[in-house]
């Protein structure tokens, strides 16, 4: 029905308009100029599908189905090591908790050293920031391996790893946020007559404390999954010599028979 | 005067009313303080219990810490290369051997590393593109103000949550079992995680978009797809791009470690050198990874700032 009101304009008139206002209706070149990023992305995707051998997805579909079936059809549930699963969950939670706590405490100290409006010395600020950049640049999994060497296998290494990550992440968000959202709270706190410490306590800390690190703490389990001999699972790194046995043990991952 | 008791503080006869108000206020304040104190004590108690439990579970004891802390620095000592100043820039000798103590010796496999780094970056780009494409499609039904009906909204929201709920390295582990060792498993894992994370961000951008263009297109009889394509996309495209670039930076980090589970990239090499006690190589690879991540962060920040303007940060 909306078309009916437009029927006064004939196709010839539209064509004439297109001719006289060529810049409004771009030709092929204009279209290319507009859409080339998308086109480039598409071409790259197709090329990378060839490069990374996406065809293997189809080849291995039987194996995928077998694995998915094993996910859904649970066998021998009586023999499952429930104790280890629960211990693993408890360790995950403990690592999240301790890691976040320690990391936040570390971040509070370090973060203010890196914030422009708290730390007036540019040299200290920049040095702290570069160190934090390195801490962040190296992934937590690598830190985990380093800590495993240091304190032995087990959740303690995970704790440290989470905390090192938290202390590396939070400080960068303190100076960043202080320029935007926190600035208003900061001014609000200052306007009530709070001293510098009061401003930090009520203006900054509520923002720094935000954040849940549960998902981060799930990762240390990877080391267990990869790394160690099932017999040792749950021993929680009590034996200090574990840090020497880990790397070799990593190759004892039990692959399913059909792999 | 008795009409306004609040003002008459010194008036003897009408003094009861203001004192009542003050007393009520004080009583209420005391109640609030008492209940807050109780909650503080409860929270502190819960915190202490959690702290104690987690210390007990993770064996976070001072003696283990005390014995562990020196070993961290010890390890950093062992991964330092044994460089000697007098032969530092020596090339290979005639029989093709590198002199121990030279940079050539330290970075013997330099070109292998570069190749793996290149593969890592390609993995990150492909995964980001794939993830962003799916996230783009799903972000419209997952936005509360744009979803055609509540069922589609619910399903797409939950789907995105599942995608980003599983850490990518766990996904990679599963995919390595499924389709074998190689970068493909890593790409799919990162792409799935990217879909979840970006989808949520995109949907939030969509929810903040102005509804007026959509109303305009509704008025001329546009379909849902047309409303999205001409009403929403032009508003949100710069933000989408910026978020995708941000995600790309994260994905570079992710793909540099995802090789630990056999899913391709530089992580595979890092895992290998750590496992085989090639200690100085560990540092060699780590330096390259940090360099790559830093350079890509810098470039991507430039692009983002140039594209959507500084005022948006």
How would you describe what is shown here?
The complex is a heterodimer of chains A (259) and B (313). Chain A is mainly alpha-helical and 259 residues long. Chain A is 70% helix and 0% strand. In chain A, α6 packs across α8. Chain B is mainly alpha-helical. In chain B, 73% of the residues lie in helices and 0% in strands. Chain B has helices spanning 16-57, 62-78, 103-106, 110-139, 150-165, 168-179, 183-208, 212-219, 224-257, 266-275, 279-308. In chain B, α7 (183-208) packs across α9. Chain B is flat, with a radius of gyration of 31 Å. The two termini of chain B are 58 Å apart. The model of chain B is unreliable at 7-13 (pLDDT under 50). Chains A and B meet through α2, α4, α5, α6 and α7 of A and α1, α2, α4, α6 and α7 of B.
Which terms would index this structure?
heterodimer; A: 259 residues; mainly alpha; 13 helices; 70% helix; 0% strand; flat; B: 313 residues
List the helices and strands and how they pair.
The complex is a heterodimer of chains A (about 260) and B (about 325).
Chain A: H1 11-20, H2 28-51, H3 56-59, H4 61-72, H5 82-114, H6 122-137, H7 140-151, H8 155-179, H9 181-191, H10 196-208, H11 214-218, H12 220-227, H13 242-249
Helix pairs in contact in A: 5-8, 6-8, 7-8, 7-13, 9-10
Chain B: H1 16-57, H2 62-78, H3 103-106, H4 110-139, H5 150-165, H6 168-179, H7 183-208, H8 212-219, H9 224-257, H10 266-275, H11 279-308
Helix pairs in contact in B: 4-7, 4-9, 5-7, 6-7, 7-9, 8-9, 9-11, 10-11
Regions with little confidence, pLDDT below 50 for 5+ residues of chain A: 170-181, 210-217, 219-259
In the predicted model, the low-confidence regions of chain B spanning at least 5 consecutive residues are 7-13
**If you average the pLDDT of chain A, what whole number results?**
64
N/C terminus separation of chain A: 62 Å
